[in-house]
Amino acid sequence: MQESFLNELTEGELLALPYLFEFWAMEHQLAPEGDWRSWVILGGRGAGKTRAGAEWVRSMVEGSRPLDPGEARRVALVGETLDQVREVMIFGESGILACSPPDRRPVWEATRKRLVWPNGAVAQAFSAHDPEALRGPQFDAAWVDELAKWKRAEESWDMLQFCLRLGERPRQCVTTTPRNVPVLKRLLQSDTTVLTHAPTEANRANLAGSFLEEMRTRYGDTRLGLQELEGKLLEDVEGALWTAGQLADLRVSDPGALGRVVVAVDPPVTSGAGADTCGIVVAALSGCGERVVVLEDASISGASPAAWAEAVVATYRRHRADRVVAEVNQGGELVETVVRQVDRTVSYRGVYASRGKVSRAEPVAALYEQGRVTHLGRMAELEAQMAQMAVGGFKGRGSPDRVDALVWAVTELMGRPQARPGVRAL
What we know:
- By secondary structure, this protein is α/β, with parallel strands linked by helices.
- It has helices at residues 2-7, 11-16, 21-24, 49-61, 82-90, 96-99, 153-163, 182-189, 209-219, 223-228, 244-249, 305-318, 334-342, 357-369, 380-386, 401-414, and strands spanning 38-43, 74-79, 107-109, 114-116, 122-127, 141-145, 171-176, 193-198, 251-252, 258-266, 279-286, 292-297, 323-327, 348-352, 373-376, 389-390, 393-394, 418-420, 423-425.
- The chain is elongated and about 75 Å long.
- The termini are far apart.
């Protein structure tokens, strides 16, 4: 049937076929009917969100013929950074330029940060890091990418809404992987918002099979997998010590002046290919000594003791750390032994857990509430575990190895009384 259909097409129709998105699109990539203001496409990584956003912009600005006007003449393209707007939304493999047929392809004017179509339509690029840049321009359409990642989401989103004031029916398309952040939750609750959704699996025809297999194996039953692969908006765990929104607000891009640096280790009980994760977290005191900056989650999975010891020492050297601290409840002297086999000069301290995981984590969570702990950028897997640590225990799968290492790091920096020489109790 397909061969017969293709044989009946003229040469011109065959050339046009790759650009007829309605013919190829998946259901979640097509704009819903109705009188909506905001169309939100929630999807897992690689679910085809960018292509859907780019094609929607085309559908808004293009007319029946190359020079005919479309529904929209002035479009805002807003991403987390200008680089992401340019490299993903405009020049990306699924971006606007790649999707446009030759006779309708817009021209990128780099100095003015805008696309100009043959029919005169214009799309301007904006960074969500600079909400003030949206004070003044006006548009009849907007494509917003990865809203849930924006560090200044509230300000930038509000400024954009004031800009959408041209035409009879200004609209915006929002393409994002979901996160439990206030701006996205409020948008989804609005009566003028429509939603389409798809997991990563929906776009498997355009993704490497090895990628899907690896992602399913590693994250399939985890909270992070539900968010990043299934594209589901996850509410906070009841009684959570940390919330996703709180952690998003505590991320910084510049750590500032730093003092003492430690590498904290929560060693796995098992070893080999199926071994538990070895939690390895790096944190530092700020120059003033009043807050902690978490610098890196360097945790490693499925490693032998020799392999994770090498990872610990490599992390110690990379950050020029002052000390390695490691929990010794399970491994005893093993941790120090394997670390010193890699580097005998490492400054090392064993720490002993005299209380349960939640009891140890609660004082650290309180420091987060006070704004005394920040993260250098986003640490997806660590933060996913943190969001599942509740007063009733850990709600995720397996052991919260990364959180344990985080707790040891913060505790070492903020100080606790010693239990016996060489071993710190908590």
